[in-house]
Amino acid sequence: MQLSSVQIHLPESVRGFSRTLSRAFPTPRLLAPPSAGIDISDASVKWLALESAKKGNGLRVRSWGEIAIPEGVVVGGFVHDKEGLVSILAAVKKELRGIECAHAALPEEAAYVFSMQVPPGSRRAQILSLIEFELEARVPIPPSAAVYDFNLIEKNGAGEEIGVVVFPRDISESYAAAFAAADLPLASLELEASSIARAISSREGADPITLLVDFGRTRSGFAVLKRGIPIFTSTVSIGGGTVIKAIMEKLSLSEAEAMKFNNEQGIAPEGGAKSPGAEAVAGAAAALADEVARHYHYWDTRRNEHGERMTPVEQVYLLGGTSNMKGITDYIAGRVQAPTDQPNVWKNVADFDDYVPPITYRESLQYATAVGLALRGVSLI
Fold it and tell me: Do the domain assignments include residue 127?
């Protein structure tokens, strides 16, 4: 099963805009212009572009980088200062050198994600009509103000299970308008979790049900992936910045020094559990772990009318800068009693025996969204 992205469907009244967000007939790979994956957060814009290997197998990193976003330009994933974002995107375009368009992700804070059953053999138009009928019960915005689409998860005895993503149309338009003003055409918009899933999931779609945790600087995103397709997303206002700030204040360190302490000592610092360093990390780490455990146990214990577990979560993946905290993987694994690890974001790019990307392992955990978006541009998957 292909890991296709969740693109966006718009009602007939906004058909013109749908050409920006949704392409029912993607450009053939040989004709597709070079594109980059662009990941916008409250703190920065990251970009990454891929190209086919000139020698050997797989893909190669063509361009990558990050530009900090001033506070207040993007808040909670929402664009508050369009001109400020346009200026940053224009700066990114200069760094892309010959790349003509972009694939970008929409903020999960604004998304409504769910799964549903449709009759076997349903056509796309029929499925979209069924989704529109479901919106009133599941989403607090009218269909005329929504953009939405779906991905097939699996075929089963009840028909076909699909994963649905819905966004407010004005949010989608604000992102599209910023890219247009920066003269950086958008090839697609999709859910952040869909981008990450494309990077870390198998192309066969045989992955176990996974709780994906993306620790950002100001917020953390959670997603449940079923066969590599998001069926749930959530965002909490607890991020890695809380940990770094606590370390800086408790130990009187610079931000760079605090990051080093986080990565090299983390939950189990050299001074022991009662040292100032341990006290600085413990509270923030516990708050992050509490959220992971809460999401994990809710989904892992859901039951259907027959008492059967509906979404038994089999693994937890940690991403983002805070996932580099020494000891955090084992700490969370102990809290949820499930295998917990950091995924390989280059899984669908290249084999390390053929190519080692020019981004450190720790940095790569912050580039999963950009990698997944870039894979869309190269592979059209």
Answer: no
Residue owning tokens 């893909």? 59
- First-to-last C-alpha distance (Å) of the chain: 10
Angle between helices 82-96 and 169-181 (to 10 degrees): 50
Rounded to whole angstroms, the Cα distance separating 213 from 317 reads: 6
Record the pTM. 0.89
Per-residue model confidence as pLDDT tens digits over 209-248: 999 999 988 889 999 999 999 999 999 988 888 889 989 9
Q: Are 225 and 335 part of one and the same domain? A: yes
The answer on 307 and 373 residing in a single domain is no
Sign of the C-alpha dihedral, residues 190, 6, 218, 38? negative
3-state per-residue secondary structure call for 103-172: EEEECHHHCEEEEEEECCCCCHHHHHHHHHHHHHHHCCCCHHHEEEEEEEEEEECCEEEEEEEEEEHHHH
| Same domain assignment for residues 237 and 280 | yes
Residue 100 belongs to domain spanning: 12-113+146-156+165-201+347-379
- What's the CATH number where 66 sits? 3.30.420.40
Please, which residues bridge with residue 333 across strands?
none
3-state helix, strand, coil in the chain (%, to 5): 40, 25, 35
Q: Which residue has the tokens 């920006």?
A: 20
Amino acid sitting at position 186: L
Q: CA distances (Å), 89 to each of 84, 107, 190, in order?
A: 9, 17, 18
